[in-house]
Amino acid sequence: MKKLKIVLTILLVLCVCSLSAKKKNDKPVYAFGISESFTDSIVYNTNIQVIDSVYLDANGFLPARDSYAYQLKNYLEINKELTDRTCMIFFNTDMKKLTKEFNKVVARYKKKNVIVQSIKPEDFKFTKPEE
Hints:
The protein contains 3 helices and 5 strands, in the order αβββαβαβ. It has helices at about 1-20, 65-80, 95-110; strands at about 30-35, 40-45, 50, 85-90, 115-120. Strands 1, 2, 3, 4 and 5 form a 5-stranded mixed beta sheet that branches. β1 and β2 form a beta hairpin.
């Protein structure tokens, strides 16, 4: 399990680093979330969504990105009664690249014989945090 945690952390860092840009981007931001627990064999994921009225900052980062992960964590704790989960968000302005990343992440979990369960789009949607 420690190896899985290290791999996921490295994957998250690489994803964030690969998105860095030199200028402000006014393209729409697409995102999906993954939630896992090191004591559970079920991984939850959201579909790829457009986050309304949000743009990447000058460094290519999603403003308040930690709050999106907490939105997913809070949804799972309140609605599904699932506690102690680690939630991650993946984002990009290019839908094709993010779809490719989504497929890679899900395939990686399936290879490890983990159950990947999707959260229905009508049940959960990322919203822009209040500033």
